[in-house]
Amino acid sequence: MQIDRWNNGAGFGSGRIGFFAELDPATGEARHGQFQYTSAGVNQARSFEVRAITRTGAGDVLVAGGNAQSELPDRDQLSLAGQEAGSRQSNETGLIAVSPDFETRTLIATVTGNNGDSGMVTDLASRGGLHAAVGTTEGTLNTVERLSGSAQTGAGTWLLIWAE
Q1: What is the DSSP letter of 17?
Q2: CA distances from residue 16 to 46, 139, 147 in whole angstroms, order as listed
Q3: pTM of the model
Q4: Largest CB tally within 10 Å, which of 17, 82, 83, 135?
Q5: 95-111, pLDDT tens digit by residue?
Q6: Cα angle vertex 124, ends 121, 126, to 5°?
Q7: Are the C-beta atoms of 87 and 77 separated by less than 8 Å?
C-alpha cells in the first residue's frame, strides 16, 4: 500500500529496502504490505533499513531502524519536548508507525539531536499502551528526561519510552 513518496521506490538505485507485511497465519499470504524508503526528493527514493517491528495494542504497526542519506516523511516538522530534530545525518535513527489497515502513517520519529550523528533503532516493544525503542547513536540525542548519570552526547545506547 502506498501512502506517499516514502513508499514509492521511483528512482531507487541500490541499498536497503524496507518492507513489512501482515500475513494470514493460516495461508501465509500477505493481507497488507508496504515498502518504506526515505526520500531525497520526488523520484529519489533512498534506503530505509528495518531492524525491529512490533504491533501496538491498538493494532498500529511500529517499524524501526535507520535511514541512509535521505529524509523521513515530514522530518522538518519533528520535535521532542520542543527540541527540533537536528540536521539530517547519514544513517540516522528512524521510527514510523502505520494504522492497522496500512493506509495511514500514524507516527514518524527520530531521536537525532543537534550536532547528531549516525544511529540506528535496534529493538522495539509495545504492551498495555506503553512503547519502548532501543538503539545506538554516535552523537547528540534529543531527550525529555535522561536517566540519572546518563550522557546526552557521545556514542552509546539509548532507551526511549512513550505512551499512547
Answers
A1: -
A2: 8, 23, 33
A3: 0.81
A4: 135
A5: 889 999 999 999 888 77
A6: 150
A7: no
